[in-house]
Amino acid sequence: MKHPNKHDLLVLLTEFENACRKADLKVTHQRLEIFRELAQAHDHPSAEMLYNRIIKRLPTISLDTVYRTLATLEKHGLITRVQTLESQARFEAEMIRHHHAVCRKCGAITDFSWNTFDEVQVPAELSGWGRITKRNAILEGICNDCVKGN
Amino acid sequence: MKHPNKHDLLVLLTEFENACRKADLKVTHQRLEIFRELAQAHDHPSAEMLYNRIIKRLPTISLDTVYRTLATLEKHGLITRVQTLESQARFEAEMIRHHHAVCRKCGAITDFSWNTFDEVQVPAELSGWGRITKRNAILEGICNDCVKGN
DNA sequence: TCATAAGTAGTAATAATTATTATTTACAGA
DNA sequence: TCTGTAAATAATAATTATTACTACTTATGA
C-alpha cells in the first residue's frame, strides 16, 4: 500500500464525507482530521499515535474524541481495526482487500495483497460454521530491519 | 479441535513438565494447573477466565500469577496468544497448526485446519520482507448460534 | 536436609479505554 | 441567513486490563 497522493486524498475525503452523510454521521472537523490522518498513514497507527499527530494541527482535540471517532467509523465500516498481539488497538483506512505481515520484534505491520489466497476455497470443515464475511491472512516473523538490527 | 481425553491430557502434562525443565522453568503446582486448564479448554480463554476456573481448585492462586505464567509460557513457545479484536488477550495450548474463525457478534473463536492454505505460496511481493515464521488465516463472520439467535 | 534462586500472593501502580457532563457545533427547516 | 435541536466534543473522572513491587514460599540440586 502506498501513500495516497494529494488528488487521491481529496477523493478519499469526499467519499468519506458522502459516506458519513449516508450513515447519518455529522461531518465534523474532528472526524475529517482523524480520517485524513489515518488515510495518509501507512503504519496502522493506534488511537494515541493518531492523537499525537492530529493535536499539532488541532490543538484542542481530546484523546477521547479520537477513541470515540475511531469506534464510530469502525462501526460504520469506514475504517478497520487491525488484529494484533499487542494491548493497544491499531487501525487502518485501507479498504481494498489485503493482508498483513507482522514483525514480532518491532510490531510493524506491512500490507500486501495475495490473490492466490483470496481464491482458495474454505475447508469443508467450516461449512456449518455460519456466515463468513471476511478472510485475512496474517504472516508473522521478523522484518528485514530487525534481522539486520541484530 | 477436540477436548483432550484423560490419557491425552496426561501425555500433554508430562510433555509440559519436560518442556519446563528443558527451559529451566520450575514445575510449580500453579503452572501445571494453568496449563492443564488451558489444555482442556476449547474456548481460547482470557487470563481472567482461566483464573475464575482455576481458583475453584486452587483457592489461593492470584490473577497476577495467571498473567505472569501465561506470559512466561508464551515466551517459551508452550502456549500461544491469540490475535483478537477485543482488548482482553486470549490464549490457547493447541500447538498443531490451525486457523481461527471468529464470530464478530459473540467473539467465539473456532479452530480449524486448512491444508490448501498452508501450502499456498507466499506472494513475491513479500520476498524482501524478512523471515516469515508463521502464517495464519482468520475468517470473520457470524457464527451459526448468532445467526439463529437473531 | 538444607541453601538458594526462582516463583508466588497480596497489594499497589500503570496503561488503555470508556463514561459522564456541561458546552459547542452541524445542519434541517423557517 | 438565522435558529432550534440533536449530535458531537472537551475536560475530567472512572473502569478495565495488565504489570510492578515486596515479603514470603517452594522447587530443585548439592
Task: Provide the fold topology.
The structure is a homodimer of 150-residue chains.
Chain A: H1 6-22, H2 29-40, H3 47-54, H4 63-75, E1 80-82, E2 90-92, E3 99-103, E4 109-112, H5 115-119, E5 130-143, H6 144-149
Parallel strand pairs in A: 3-5
Antiparallel strand pairs in A: 1-2, 3-4
Helix pairs in contact in A: 1-2, 2-3, 3-4
Chain A binds a DNA duplex (30 and 30 nucleotides) through helix 2 and helix 4.
Total discrete domains of chain A:
2
Chains forming the largest contact: A-B, 42 and 42 residues
> In percent, how much strand structure appears in the residues of chain A?
15-25%
Q: CATH superfamily membership of the largest domain in chain A, which one?
A: Winged helix-like DNA-binding domain superfamily/Winged helix DNA-binding domain
- The amount of helix of chain A comes to 40-55%
Radius of gyration of chain A: 17 Å
- CATH class descriptor name of the largest domain in chain A: Mainly Alpha
* Multimeric status of the protein: homodimer
Mean pLDDT across residues of chain A: 92
CATH architectural name of the largest domain in chain A: Orthogonal Bundle
Supply the helix-strand structural class of chain A.
alpha+beta
Query: Major sheet of chain A: order of its strands?
Result: 4-3-5
How would you summarize what this structure contains?
With 150 residues, the first copy, chain A, is α+β, with helices and mostly antiparallel strands. Helix content of chain A is 41%, strand content 19%. Chain A has 2 domains: 87 residues, Orthogonal Bundle (Arc Repressor Mutant, subunit A), CATH 1.10.10; 51 residues, Ferric-uptake regulator, C-terminal dimerisarion domain (Dna Ligase, domain 1), CATH 3.30.1490.
